[in-house]
Design goal:
Elements: E1 12-14, E2 18-21, H1 24-35, H2 40-54, E3 64-70, E4 76-81, H3 91-96, H4 115-126, H5 131-144, E5 146-147, H6 150-157, H7 160-164, H8 167-173, E6 185-186, H9 189-201, H10 204-207, H11 209-221, H12 228-232, E7 237-239, E8 242-246, E9 249-253, H13 260-274, H14 286-306, H15 317-320, H16 323-330, E10 354-359, E11 365-371, E12 380-381, E13 388-389, E14 419-423, E15 426-432, H17 439-451, H18 457-462, E16 466-469, E17 472-475, H19 481-489, E18 493-496, E19 505-510, E20 515-520, E21 527-530
Parallel strand pairs: 17-18
Antiparallel strand pairs: 1-20, 2-10, 2-21, 3-4, 3-11, 4-7, 5-6, 8-9, 9-14, 10-11, 12-13, 14-15, 15-19, 16-17, 19-20
Helix pairs in contact: 1-2, 2-5, 5-9, 13-14, 13-16, 13-17, 14-19
């Protein structure tokens, strides 16, 4: 239980349904949808649509989404709605255009947006209410306007230079050349019309017609290789989750091209190290952060070497989670000091953001994430409808020999990772942690905070975070100075950072007491609500 003398928030408790999102309007929309007879999927989709309006720098219809669903019978289902590169996007074609890297702001960094195909698929397969009804709150907010929340305003102000370089962004996302301030009311008539087209025509309202024409015209004006056929061919797919056991729970993640496997590798490495090293009693101790960082460095190196689109590359999932590889990598970690060179990742024998969570009264849990990747995605905004196009193509490699090299209709390595943890085959945690590359270690922090240190969901999200950026270890301002000194003594270039690491939401299901426990990360503007 938190210290009530310190500023902070309690976890939210309810007995019927619970949602947690990164913005109060989205959480309220989710609860209203549930109370109007919708299920967890309806609430998740309605909330996600609202977030495209109130957090346009984090998410949008020009991005991708992933979802993990725990059905009332306990079965798990995962949807990959990530977009693909254009048919014409060969390495040779890009090099002929003088493209040697996929840079922010380049049309070549934009893959086909997959989110709307995902929304339509999830609505048809799992929802109770028509998509048009679920999009109504977002359409109303976009047209009538919504006030800008504090964290949104802070992030927006940091992106003025990026937005100023694009015609659509200047017209739709800046006010007299500046970012809106906290409390300013922003209206998005173009986005409202795009959402209306989707509400009326489903996926055809986005991948065909006027919205599609706006996307293609915007990208081709910037030299993009995208065609109407690329948009029309976008299709989401169901995939089998991958999982490992940790602390009595089983954590389920999406498989590659998603990088949820990184979270699983980190937890397996920590579990292996715990057999040899006792975790410190203090969760803020330098020794604890040291083990997390060293495990993460190895797991992310494995990601960079192998994770790609399994449709077009051999991704050795079994190898990456095997006892042999985990034991080999764990042996490279010195519990007392940073290892400067952790060495190459062994090859297999013979040779791969917003987040919200909703749980309803029937026991359906939806772990859902939708994102445009970087703040306002690529910074390219469609000129008529005014929504940002994501920059997921930056997840590709330009190395011809790499499994993640860009290729026609290929999906890039993807950072969006919704998760569900189960016990005895039943979901007990539906959660996610935002923040691009931070997300997998964010999952590991949540699991270890709760299972090794006994934190409740809100404490697990509140806890100070440390992450590496290259050779530097960035520490949030709430990390004690003594911890930074300890990390430096171990050989880490540990420094305080200006921006916090990510965000996050959790809904915990306490089956013994019939209680739902919600938590929303204070690093964002959100809230957990239940009834």
């Amino acid at each position: 239980m938190r210290n009530f003398h310190d500023p902070g928030r309690s976890a939210a408790y309810a007995s019927t349904a619970m949602c947690a999102t990164s913005h109060p309007m989205a959480s309220l929309t989710a609860v209203e949808t549930l109370k109007a007879g919708g299920n967890a999927m309806d609430a998740a989709l309605a909330a996600s649509a609202v977030l495209t309006v109130v957090e346009p720098h984090m998410t949008g219809i020009g991005g991708d989404c992933f979802a993990m669903i725990a059905a009332p019978d306990g079965s798990l289902h995962a949807l990959n709605a990530s977009g693909r590169a254009p048919e014409a996007a060969t390495l040779e074609a890009l090099r002929a255009k003088g493209v040697t890297s996929l840079e922010m702001g380049s049309a070549h960094a934009v893959t086909v947006p997959g989110a709307i195909d995902g929304w339509v698929r999830l609505n048809a397969d799992w929802g109770r209410k028509p998509l048009a009804e679920l999009l109504t709150p977002a359409i109303m907010m976009a047209r009538e306007g919504t006030p800008v929340a504090p964290r949104v305003a802070r992030d927006w102000a940091a992106q003025v230079d990026k937005l100023s370089g694009d015609e659509g962004a200047r017209a739709h996302l800046l006010v007299d050349g500046a970012a809106p301030r906290v409390g300013d009311v922003m209206r998005y008539e173009g986005l409202a019309r795009a959402l209306e087209a989707i509400a009326q025509k489903g996926r055809a309202g986005f991948y065909e017609g006027a919205v599609a024409a706006d996307i293609i015209a915007t990208l081709q004006a910037g030299g993009g290789l995208h065609t109407h056929d690329d948009l029309a061919s976008q299709a989401s797919t169901y995939v089998a989750p991958i999982a490992v056991d940790y602390g009595g729970l089983r954590l389920h993640e999406l498989p590659p091209n998603n990088h949820g496997i990184v979270a699983l590798m980190i937890l397996r490495l920590i579990e292996t190290l715990k057999a040899k090293v006792t975790l410190p009693d203090d969760p803020k101790a330098a020794a604890r952060y040291h083990l997390m960082i060293e495990a993460a460095r190895l797991a992310y190196a494995a990601r960079d070497a192998f994770v790609a689109d399994p449709d077009q590359a051999d991704v050795p999932v079994g190898h990456l989670l095997s006892d042999h590889l985990i034991d080999t990598l764990a042996a490279r970690i010195d519990p007392a000091a940073r290892t400067a060179d952790l060495g190459p990742i062994p090859e297999p024998a013979g040779t791969d953001t917003i987040y919200l969570s909703v749980v309803d009264g029937d026991g359906m849990a939806v772990s859902f994430i939708n994102s445009v990747f970087s703040a306002f995605g690529s910074g390219i905004v469609t000129r008529e409808f005014g929504f940002a196009l994501h920059n997921r193509g930056q997840g590709f490699s330009m190395d011809a020999g790499h499994p993640n090299v860009i290729a026609p209709r290929k999906r890039p390595m993807h950072t969006l990772v919704p998760a569900i943890a189960t016990k005895d085959g039943q979901p007990v945690l539906s959660f996610g942690v935002m923040g691009a590359a931070f997300q997998p270690i964010g999952h590991a922090y949540v699991m270890t905070n709760m299972l090794d240190y006994g934190m409740d969901p809100q404490e697990a999200l509140d806890h100070p975070r440390v992450f590496f950026d290259g050779d530097q270890v960035g520490c949030e301002r709430t990390v004690p100075r003594a911890t930074i000194d300890g990390l430096q003594a171990m050989g880490h270039d540990a420094v305080y950072v200006d921006d916090p690491w990510g965000g996050g939401q959790i809904v915990q299901i306490d089956r013994a007491r019939g209680t739902l426990i919600g938590a929303s990360d204070p690093r964002k503007d959100g809230i957990a609500l239940g009834y």
